[in-house]
Amino acid sequence: MIDPGLYMALAAVLFTIGALGLLVRRNALVMFMCIELMLNAVNLTLISAGRALNDINGQVAVFFILVVAAAEVVVGLAIIVSIFRLKSTASVDELSELRG
Amino acid sequence: MITPEIQWIAILPEIALAAGAAAVLLIEVQWKPAANRLGWVAGISFALAMAFTIVQWLTASDALAVGQIGSLLGFSGMVLMDGFAVFGRLALLAIMGLGLMSGWRFVTGLGRRGAESIALILLATAGFSIMIASNNLVMMFLGLEVGSISLYVLAGMTRDTSRSDEAAMKYFLLGSFASAIFIYGVALLYAGTGRFDVLGMRGFFSGVIVTAPAVILIGIALVIVGLGFKVSAAPFHSWAPDVYQGAPAGITGYMAAMAKVAGFLAIARILITGLPQYEQSWAPVLAGVAALSMAIGAFMALVQSDVRRLLAYSGVAHAGFIMTGLVGGTFTGMLFYVAVYALQLVGAFAIVAAVSGSASSASDIDDYRGLVRRSPVLAVSLAVLLLGMAGLPLTSGFVAKFGVFAEAWAGGFEWLVILGVLTSVVTFAFYLRVIVMMFMEESESDLAAPSTPVRWAVGLAVLGTVLFGILPEPLLRLAADAFPL
To answer: Is residue A34 one of the residues assigned to a domain?
Structure first.
């Protein structure tokens, strides 16, 4: 069996990629995918931690996070579509009306 | 087989709110009634939730009096019914009531989609309410997301204005980012301890000494960052001014106050109840975030030309003040502060909505020039609320600030208290700027009289600000009794 610690390290890398991507990329859809990547990194952490601790709770928690991620997809895409209808763009740089 | 222990009373307030939301949506689809009828449904579910919360309070104090802690653990310890959760529920329900009243014109102005916004307001309250009551961190995450996702939609409720969409987008992206950071922190805490429940973590740390606490420390830091985003503490505050400015005015006060109350109660429950053994690690971090928030919030608010951005930055400063109450490992001052600040915030935004139109997303500070000639009641009310936020003696803000500063001083963070007092002085400058504009200058335009629910909401907020400033003992005693398990 591969050491669960390696999976947790991989999850940490994935989470970092997601977080950096969210901060660097300017397309709302790509930023959105980065959030999904972060949530999946959390899932991987929970699964491998549950495996390492021999505890079912970590693996059960993953289902709840999957459901939350799905709900976020629904709302997030709706907001992106709503903006695309008004502005025909999905770039967050175009969203600059609010400043002060 | 073990029979699961179910105590429905522990989640009856949330059931009442969620059922109310479902009922509003179903009634809208089936009968298409006028919005005021739906308001009655929301009112009934509010009243039921309030009644159940009061029953919980009585049950909790009875159980504590005879020392039966076990009966406060609902659903095998998933949900707690301690005074802390009940105090938070009371505050959230009060905000919801005032928010519905002050946003009623906005809700009815949405036409057919008014029902959706009522349902979302009820759902957001249910989510944040379960968040502060949960002992299990995954449960807390679910409550946080139910509340946050409802708020993202509410921010974008006026679909045809691009500013509202922009606010929803920014709130959504940064809010989801914060949620992901929070749940990663929870996952790391689980990896380090094998526990999801706050009380279990405390038990775990009192039993073992962790020799390599890196995972746990990173987990604590991520939880603080994630919830720091939600309460708009600096340096995680960048979304707040844009969202407060772009979201429909009628609902902004509710959104802001809700996230603040729930976020701070969750921070207090996780850190103070769950991880007291790591206080040496998290207290300096909280103190640093508090200091940054106070300084950035107060100085950025000085240069704002939009009242809603000003309130947003002042909210960042207030997040710092509230966090000052947590650094000593105490919570009474924090509870009092979030309750009275939430009241002031909802009241102030109700007035902003009345001055600039409830669906609008512009509220230039020049609109407030000479407000006293157009609407003396609104001007005086806004002045009282702003002075309350600034912390003038005889208002609730003064008692609240005194409380958190006293606790931080006793906790050994003298430098933070001195910084807090200095930034309080700075906050007077921008609150007084608005007040001077309202009272000293001439106005040109006219203003429609505010609707009855707005007048009630503003009246209650002003009454609370003055009453808890002169007679703070009842609320202070309530906050002191509301300790977490």
So the answer is: yes
Q: Which residues pair with B370 in a beta bridge?
A: none
Beta carbons of B169 and A68 less than 8 Å apart: no
**Does a structural domain hold residue B140?**
yes
Distance from CA of B392 to the nearest CA of A (A): 28
CB contact under 8 A, B152 and A46: no
Residue A9 lies in a domain: no
| Interface confidence (ipTM) of the complex | 0.95
Q: What is the CATH number of the domain that holds A55?
A: 1.10.287.3510
Question: Could you tell me if residue A81 is inside a domain?
Answer: yes
Residues of chain B in contact with residue A53, where contact means CB-CB under 8 angstroms, are: 191, 194
Helix (H) and strand (E) counts for chain B?
20, 2
Optimal mutation site among A13, A68, A88, interface B, most CBs of chain B within 10 A: A68
Of A12-21, B226-235, B243-252, B456-465, minimum mean pLDDT range: B243-252
Does residue B359 fall inside a structural domain?
yes
Q: Would residue A79 count as lying in a domain?
A: yes
Q: What is the pLDDT of residues B144-157, one digit of tens each?
A: 999 999 999 999 88
* Cβ-based neighbour number of residue B221 at 10 Å: 16
Report the gap between the CA of A56 and the closest CA in chain B (Å). Answer: 10
pLDDT of res. B386 = 95
- How many separate domains does chain B show? 1
> Which of B137, B90, B71, B149 lies closest to B269 in space, CA to CA?
B137
Q: Does B159 sit within 8 Å of A82, measured CB to CB?
A: yes
Sequence letter at residue B189: L
